[in-house]
Structure formats: structure tokens, C-alpha cells
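User: Could you check the structure of this?
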Amino acid sequence: MTGWLDRPLLDLDAVDLDGAESVTYLLHQVFRYDYDGPAYDVRQRLVALPRPRHGNFHRRAQHVQVADPGGVLGRPHAATDPVGNAVVEVELPTVPVSVEFTLAALVERVGPPADAVLPAAALTDPRHLVPTRLTSPDHRLWDLAEELRRAYPQAPALAEALCRRLRAEFTFELDSTSVSTTAAEAYGLRHGVCQDFAHVMLTVCRAAGIPARYVSGHLLGEHGGSHAWVEVLVPDPAGARALAFDPTNGSRAGARHLPVAVGRDYADVAPTSGVYSGPARGALTWTKRAGVTAVTRDLVLER
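Assistant: Sure, the predicted C-alpha cells are below.
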């Protein structure tokens, strides 16, 4: 049933993802916690399995397992939260030494790259407009929002200009911020990682009265952890349209962006979070295999 986990990945430089009629993505992640003593009452929450549907992305298969070196350790509970994210929760009475959470999925993009279409209510949903602790503007971000609003009265143009500006003004720098760094703090530093770029863009958009949401996922071809970008919501004859921008790269999100979850900010969709009791100290490591396993048209580009 899980033979698809071993499917070979295609060379991304040898396929036309934009021109393909459909694309099948594979995401396989293992999160491992090692403890220096027994951990008790372990409660883990994982938001690392792609949503059942995100625009024209459809999850076709999934695999979730919780194990320790001796075998299967617990039974995960998988559910969908109120905004459609896949959430896996696990409760373990005791973890003697280590525990591994394996989450994998096959996702198919049906049709060419396209913006997600949402109900019109998304445009007035407070979750897309009200600042959070991580996305509360200071005077500098209010000023930036006002400057851009005067120069670009239309939301798509403002979002595009902001996306390019953040790419030009910010420096991507690992370990320079943390998951608790606010947008205002990151903007003052002018450096950070993808979640910081996304938080600043969210903050400015919302300060300008433009609804926007945080997207966690993966940028194929990147090594390491997950990626983050922003969807700016604009009116559409069908309701609302989600325009995806990647401020870390100063561009629209494209066919190499694989969405996993959406929220108000990083805190809503942290890939892994949890608590446990006892004096033991824990350390997290992870592995990831992500890419494309099949396209239906224009498989190989002429070189």
C-alpha cells in the first residue's frame, strides 16, 4: 500500500512543470525526537501532511506512522481543522529513548498552475485581517503600508511591489531569528528566514487593509526544512482569489511550491510542536524527501 514512497524523483531541470497537464508530487518526512531519559505524557501535534485540497492540488495518498527503535509505538489521530489543514495528534504515555513521526503524501496538481479560489467570506474573515502577536505592526510597518497604499491603490500591484521590495531590502540569514521573532523585530534587523519574510509581508498587507494568509509548504529543490510564503486575497467573480507570493525570492509562488497548510502566521501551522513531562531533555532531527514523481505532458525539455 505504501510502495509509492520509493518512487524515483524526476530531475526538476528536465521537466516543464508549468506546461504539464498534471504533476504528481511526493513528500516524505521523518521527525525524530531523542531524549536523554524517559519522557512522559508526550503530546505531539504535527502539521506536516499536505491539505486534502489546496486550489488545484489534491492529496491522493498519505502515510502516517509513529515508532521507536523497537517498533510501532502509538496510534496517531489524524483530522482536518476548521480551515482545512491536516493535523496529526499523538499521545504517548512514555517514550523511553526516542520516537519517530513519519508523514508522507502523494499530491497531484490537476491542470496548469492556478490561484486557489475561496468563498467570498474569506475577504472579511478576521483571521486574514487582524494582527497576531507575530504580525503586529510597529510605526515603521504602518508607514510602509501607508506609503505602498498611496503608490499602489490596487491590492495585486501593492502585493507585488511589496514582495519585490522585501527581497531587495532583506538578507536571508539562517539562525539570525527564531520562531518567536515578530515581523516588527525582523523588519528592524532586515534579515531572517522565510517565515520572517512572510510575517513582514502579512503585516504590511493587513495594515493596508488587504486580507492575507500564511502558507507553509516546501520549495522543491531546496534542502532543509519547510518553506513559507503568503497568499493575498482579492475579489473574484467566483468569490475570492488567493494570489501566492514568495517574498523570500521576490516572486509569485510557482509550480515548485508545494503547499501544506495555511494560517494566520507560523504559530498556527508549525510543522511539529508538543509538550512532555519529566526531567529529560529532548533534541529534534528530521529528514525530508520531496520532489516530483510524474508529469503527464512535456516530460523532458529539449536541451
